[in-house]
TrEMBL record:
Entries under InterPro entries matching the protein: Quinoprotein_ADH-like_sf, WD40/YVTN_repeat-like_dom_sf, WD40_rpt
SUPFAM superfamilies xref list: Quinoprotein alcohol dehydrogenase-like (SSF50998)
Database matches in PROSITE patterns: WD_REPEATS_2, WD_REPEATS_REGION
SMART domains reported in the protein's UniProt record: WD40
Stated name of the protein: Uncharacterized protein
Gene3D superfamilies: YVTN repeat-like/Quinoprotein amine dehydrogenase
PANTHER family on file: TRANSCRIPTION INITIATION FACTOR TFIID (PTHR19879), TRANSCRIPTION INITIATION FACTOR TFIID SUBUNIT 5 (PTHR19879:SF9)
Domain of life of the source: Eukaryota
Keyword Methyltransferase part of the UniProt annotation: no
Annotated WD repeat ranges: 252-293, 306-335, 456-470
Keywords, sorted A to Z: WD repeat
Length: 470
């Protein structure tokens, strides 16, 4: 199982008599309610202009129907292309018109997507179950090359036609037998040729054996020269791969347990990794030499992030703590309480004029915002629960990019809810699944900010994308 896509499922508010045995039971009985909302100067956040309460699905500014359940979402750096993974297929949309530009199907289920900083390549990870084994691959799709391969359905239909003729003429199949077996034959042929094409892609270096780290990992260096992925039997090796030369540059191999997060600082002179072995390691960005090992104790480590100016590094732990180091001195400046459980999503924001650095971190039921200078918790957004915290987790916490107006913090939770907060004006937006829907749906954690339209694009488990303008 790809650990980068694991979703924890902590706490509900529901009747004590409700029987909850599966995620679907939980989400059907779930009632969202806050224990504590965003506030400023002692005043709770008010609704943003145009909102008198949460907007429900159906009131979005635009909806795009997808051919299946989306599993990953990525926006190109220039915000012109939106990539969406639907099961084993990747579709690339025009991010403004939502017309499909390109699409490609892979063997296995797609788990993560990322655009190269230049927009030239699209990175995706897939998991293939074959011969009772899990095999993981990373696909490097060169978008600068004209599409040459045809649609898989068309291809396998042609192969099926040839196969049917051979079965009738050479194997004595009847027309009725062929018709009854055609769907199974087509699926088997598609799997056969997709597997062969995958092996060919590995030989061409268009596919790599391994998986992408998750939890806010940045798979490409900022200059786009290298990509990072996880290899090795114990998932503890980080491969640094030269994109233009299509070859491994070096490996980072000093962790003793699985690596969860990897990223480089803004000038790419340093690489950081967090691991289940309870350590964060800092590596020289051009040689892979180990510079420092930062200790946190025995707790598993998850999400990480460098601050936009590169001065600070934050990593979330399974204890609910967030560790913050000053990068230049490797001094641990704060051990913040973001609990109650593991912190697997976090993000930085900066007020350049005031030289203030903010850190937002999400755990099972809570999002905390800290002022890094003082280690003060300045915001505490928390969901009510009854102590049975097993099926709810904040899946995505991210600040809008610097060119997005207004500057906001976005939160996405597994009931498909998006909460957006503008600290400057102390106002909020909420977008939610209709409470009357039954059965209700778990949402995905995927959402992106689109600066050109001041909107959020969100992937939904009802086979759709939704656009919400702020």
């Amino acid at each position: 199982m790809d650990l980068s896509t694991v979703q924890a499922l902590p706490p509900p508010t529901m009747s004590q008599h409700a029987v909850v045995s599966t995620p679907q039971d939980f989400i059907d009985a779930w009632k969202f309610e806050l224990a504590h909302d965003f506030e400023k100067g002692g005043l709770p956040a008010s609704w943003a202009p145009g909102q008198s309460g949460p907007k429900q699905w159906g009131a979005e500014d635009q909806k795009v129907n997808l051919p299946g359940n989306p599993t990953a979402l990525a926006l190109s750096a220039d915000a012109t292309s939106l990539a969406v993974a639907v099961n084993s297929e990747v579709l690339i949309y025009d991010a403004n018109t939502f017309a499909v530009r390109r699409k490609r199907r892979y063997a296995g289920a797609i788990g993560l997507l990322a655009f190269h900083p230049s927009g030239r390549f699209l990175l995706s990870s897939s998991t293939v179950f074959r011969n009772r084994k899990i095999q993981e691959y990373i696909h490097l799709w060169d978008l600068g090359v004209e599409a040459g391969a045809g649609d898989w359905d068309t291809f396998t239909s042609r192969i099926l036609d040839v196969s049917v003729e051979a079965l009738v003429n050479e194997r004595s199949w009847s027309a009725a037998e062929v018709e009854a077996m055609s769907p199974e034959l087509k699926a088997s042929l598609e799997e056969l040729f997709q597997t062969a094409e995958l092996r060919r892609d590995v030989q061409r270096q268009d596919a790599l054996e391994g998986h992408l780290a998750g939890f806010g990992s940045r798979p490409f260096t900022h200059d786009g020269k290298f990509l990072f992925y996880i290899g090795g039997i114990n998932r503890a090796d980080v491969v640094v791969y030269n994109v233009s030369e299509r070859k491994e540059r070096f490996r980072l191999q000093r962790h003793t347990d699985a690596v969860m997060w990897v990223g480089s600082n803004p000038d790419d002179t340093m690489i950081a990794t967090s691991s289940w072995d309870g350590t964060v390691k800092l590596w020289q960005g051009h040689t892979g030499a180990l510079l420092h090992t930062l200790q946190t104790g025995r707790h598993q480590l998850w999400a990480g992030r460098f601050s936009p100016d590169g001065r600070f590094l934050a990593v979330g732990a399974g204890s609910g703590n967030i560790y913050v180091w000053r990068v230049e001195t490797t001094e641990l400046i704060s051990k913040l309480d973001g609990g109650p459980d593991w912190v697997r999503t976090l993000d930085f924001s900066m007020d350049v004029e005031k030289d203030v650095v903010y850190l937002a971190a999400g755990s099972s039921l809570k999002v905390c915002v800290f002022d890094i200078r003082t280690a003060e918790r300045i915001q505490n957004w928390e969901v009510k629960h009854d102590g049975n915290g097993i099926m709810y987790e904040v899946q995505n916490v991210q600040y809008s990019p610097s060119d997005f107006t207004p500057r906001v913090l976005g939160i996405k939770t597994p009931d498909g809810r998006i909460t957006v907060y503008d600290n400057g004006r102390n106002v909020k937006w909420e977008f939610e699944q209709p409470l009357t829907d039954a059965p209700r749906l778990y949402g995905t954690g995927d959402m992106v900010f689109h600066a050109a339209t001041s909107s959020i694009i969100s992937a939904g488990s009802d086979n759709s994308l939704r656009v919400w303008k702020l």
